[in-house]
Design goal:
30% helix; 5 helices; alpha/beta
């Protein structure tokens, strides 16, 4: 039996949105939360050690969330985006939510790394790599446990994030089969 794909969520809070963690578990991922609560140097060291626990052939993805916390959210997102410009062994996908800053906008990432960045209306930068801007949102819009959660932009960001992570892990989903099963249950 194959091990579930590994996803690391990181943000600046000691705890993370339990709804997001449940959603990733429901999609078949093994989720680990790595809070960015110490110094930047300690956080970078913890990130560098992530591949050490993987078995031969296993990969992992990082979701960064800025502001308070999340998949590399806020400051955590900015640190990981900077680090990921150089190859990080076994890292196949990187998703950042509302980073407080980004590396030089023209900077690229290794071609094997699938990157997606979610920005809010308050972001004053636009990178050249894959990113999404959500007008009329503020940092926290994608976190279901916050009052600022946006019922339109949040699920859209989730769908885009799930797609980027699946692409990184080379997971193909037969949506046609799922739709047919759904329709069979309805009628």
């Amino acid at each position: 039996m194959q091990n579930p794909p590994k996803l690391v969520l990181t943000s600046q809070d000691a705890e993370f949105d339990p709804v997001t963690i449940r959603n990733w578990h429901a999609e078949g991922f093994k989720v680990t939360y790595l809070p960015y609560t110490g110094t930047q140097k300690e956080f970078e060291r913890a990130l560098q050690l992530l591949p050490d626990s993987l078995e031969l052939g296993e990969k992992y993805a990082i979701m960064l969330i800025s502001l308070f916390w999340m998949i590399a959210y806020g400051d955590a997102a900015a640190v990981v985006l900077e680090m990921a410009q150089k190859p990080m062994p076994k890292l196949c996908a990187l998703v950042a939510y509302y980073p407080t800053m980004i590396p030089a906008p023209a900077t690229g990432f290794p071609p094997s790394l699938h990157v997606a960045v979610h920005l809010t209306k308050s972001s004053s930068f636009a990178p050249k790599y894959k990113h999404y801007v959500y007008p009329d949102t503020n940092p926290g819009f994608a976190e279901a446990d916050l009052e600022i959660f946006d019922k339109v932009a949040g699920p859209l960001a989730w769908s885009r994030t799930l797609g980027a992570v699946r692409k990184g892990f080379e997971i193909e989903v037969d949506l046609e089969r799922i739709w047919e099963e759904h329709m069979a249950c309805e009628f």
